[in-house]
Amino acid sequence: MQEAMEFYQYEPNQFARGLMKQESKMIGIYFPEGRGSLFDSAYNLELLKGIEETLSYQNYSMVLLGENRGFSLRKQQIPRYLEYIKQKRLDGLILSGLSGQPARKEVLQQIVEEQFPVVYIGKRIHEKGFNIYAQFEQYHVKMVDTLRQYGHRKILMLIHGSHSNYLPEITAQVKERMPEVTLYPILLDAGEELREPLTRVVEEYISGVGCTAVIPEGAEDTQVLLSVCAELQIPVPERVSILSVEHQRGAGQLLHPKISACYVPARAMGGSAAELLIRHIRGEVIEAKSIEYESVFIPRDSIRRL
Amino acid sequence: MQEAMEFYQYEPNQFARGLMKQESKMIGIYFPEGRGSLFDSAYNLELLKGIEETLSYQNYSMVLLGENRGFSLRKQQIPRYLEYIKQKRLDGLILSGLSGQPARKEVLQQIVEEQFPVVYIGKRIHEKGFNIYAQFEQYHVKMVDTLRQYGHRKILMLIHGSHSNYLPEITAQVKERMPEVTLYPILLDAGEELREPLTRVVEEYISGVGCTAVIPEGAEDTQVLLSVCAELQIPVPERVSILSVEHQRGAGQLLHPKISACYVPARAMGGSAAELLIRHIRGEVIEAKSIEYESVFIPRDSIRRL
DNA sequence: CTGTTAGCGCATTCAT
DNA sequence: ATGAATGCGCTAACAG
Q: How many Cα neighbours within 13 Å face the side chain of A261?
């Protein structure tokens, strides 16, 4: 009997097994923030890598939940992750990037209330849920402060439209703690065409206003920013300094000049989220309801001391 | 009764439903090629986007299958996608990038023989299975030819180690059809440190041997190549021309100079793969066993006419 | 310690 | 038409 099972490489039918044990060994992953963007930013990708590593080690799998854009004839648009939870397809859920979506937050709250295992990557939303947070506002303020210490006073900050809600806090803190600094925050819409708007911004704020430093929000923006500077013959860091956010360790090192960065350990955060979730599923008592990650400044070649 | 279901937002339990109907509405996605690389190349990401679009429109979900690196005490390392198929968790499977993994090909053949719905993205492996192919060798030869038409005779080609098996065909075709061209193919190991080896290659083959053009294999390499050239003070395209592969439409446009590219429609390919798979699952008769995609040359600013 | 059975929740079939 | 019974394949509980 045993050897027969071995020989035929028997694997139990997961429908039957799941029906019995009431578990699917599947974790849903839902990152909204605009269409298709799950696969677009280095941040999300690093999160996914971290999640994947941890989950697969514990024999869970990831189900990527996109927007529900199917031809659902009958039902009103219920988000897919909710649908899947009700269908018992998922043992847990990892969410990220709900910041700009108040409607979605309500749904999250509902799920959390119902005790379904959820971990949210981002700023704490619900007093009961678990979350992992990199402290977006704090590290942005820290970046401004770093540039200030290098002697910069007029600083351009590029922020994605979906993060506009964090801006007031950032500007307020900068104003309060660094009155000598003038911060120019610019909201970039996450459209296909990044280069042209960025060119105009650089012309206006570097050449025009006279900013001496720029803070882009991620690797994608940094690359385009570097290209734009090259095209406009604005040498980095002689004419303008760059301090970028780095989600993928070492990414800034590949470029020329090597980009100084504020390292946000997205991969570790993803892993952490997955681990927390699994412990929650197992019913363990979890002390920390919120894990906050610190970013690290990595000095390289793209900042000039004034 | 009807209204009760509506009110409680009833969703059928998928274990029971699956047990009955023998379908899971889940599609497995497996891209090997080294650890974590699923999320590393623009090519894979574009494929995933295309797959995701099509699948979610048809109410399927993607299960990302990583390597089986769990603590499997008991069983010998059976690949996870095989395990999942036997467990009836998947209705179909999309594979890509098995090129360097002969052992895995055998498994694929076995699955195909057993009539399990599979689509392979890459060069045809099994006479019975379905595949989507961008014709890697052909478009590389085409790129060489394009540079030849611009007057280049000594051309450096950067190829990932995992694609080494395609090299003989490429060099043979170039030798036969373009005897006046000398091709210098370099295999890059997909390690963390891309910049240093690339710097040495550029020094040796551009400054040393005197190559006038480089063909990098994708967006990642192109960015680093540009940085290396900037650092070594090798102007593009004045001193060296670049013709890159572009998987994400418009990616080359964001850089400076705008990179001329051979566009491989990875997104459409992913969509195609998903569609083919779904039709296969539905039991439709499919005429085309193999869909081959043509790449398109997009002239931009990074090639100089000699 | 091995063998039998009940029931997980649904869809399908058969009987009313 | 509506309702009750069956079985999908497994596991856990129970009986021998």
A: 23
